[in-house]
Amino acid sequence: MTMPLLEAKNLTRKFGALIAVNNVSLQLRQREIHAVIGTNGAGKSTLTYLLSGELPLSGGQVQLRGKDVSNWSQPARSQAGLGRSYQRNNIFLPLSVRENCRLAAQAKVQKPWQFWSAAQQCRRSLEAANYALEQAGLGKHAATTAANLSHGQKRQLEVAMCLAQQPDVLLLDEPLAGMGAEESDRMLGLLHQLKKNLAILLIEHDMDAVFAVADRLTVMVNGSVLASGLPDAIRNNAAVQTAYLGEGDHTADKPTDLLI
Ligand SMILES: Nc1ncnc2c1ncn2[C@@H]1O[C@H](COP(=O)(O)OP(=O)(O)OP(=O)(O)O)[C@@H](O)[C@H]1O
Ligand SMILES: [Mg+2]
Known about the structure:
This protein is an alpha/beta fold. It is about 35% helix and about 25% strand.
């Protein structure tokens, strides 16, 4: 087996008395979609913040290509190839689709002390932005104001903004939330394409979608890992069925503001 690109080792995060993430370990490999599923409040988003460096750990270690990055900032991890999207849209609505992507790319290449290479960086950012938009299927909407995109296109733009930073690991927090069937299918097609070159950690509630694309799954309950393994093993795991899969629609109890 190849070395994991990203590895969580016994990650723990406490918020006061609440243990939001409790001793969670998982591995993410090249050309793999590893889905993390679990009920509302299971700790999935918190886990992504720990991996991306936006929240400090209470315990454990994050490794990127075998290197301990637990004390690295989020920008440092991003520079090292770790990209992420958010459960809520994170785009600048008044700007064009291309400009959103270009700014994301620029955040990656920017080196403030190299002021003399600004023009060259600008060109590189634009190239990265255009390439990411094509990859994400938004090429023909590049000049559109982001506010005028459909909900699904906004989520595609979020993914394009990640791609503009040329990551090799992507953390996607509910990229299908609030999408209709057609938009979901388009996004799933995109994820299939992307995994040819990337490792993707996918947080998702839509079980049909998860089982359609995931190579490996981790199930979280109350901050802890209940089970982790290949899709068939997870589908047939009695504890998982009792705790999660048997419950029906897992988006039903989500507050609507999380479905933006
Ligand atoms: N900044 C915070 N301060 C205090 N508690 C928090 C904070 N962030 C998250 N929590 C709590 O940690 C737990 C895990 O939250 P988290 O958002 O990671 O769950 P989730 O699995 O992503 O849920 P959902 O499916 O609803 O998105 C919840 O009980 C939540 O209320
Ligand atoms: Mg969440």
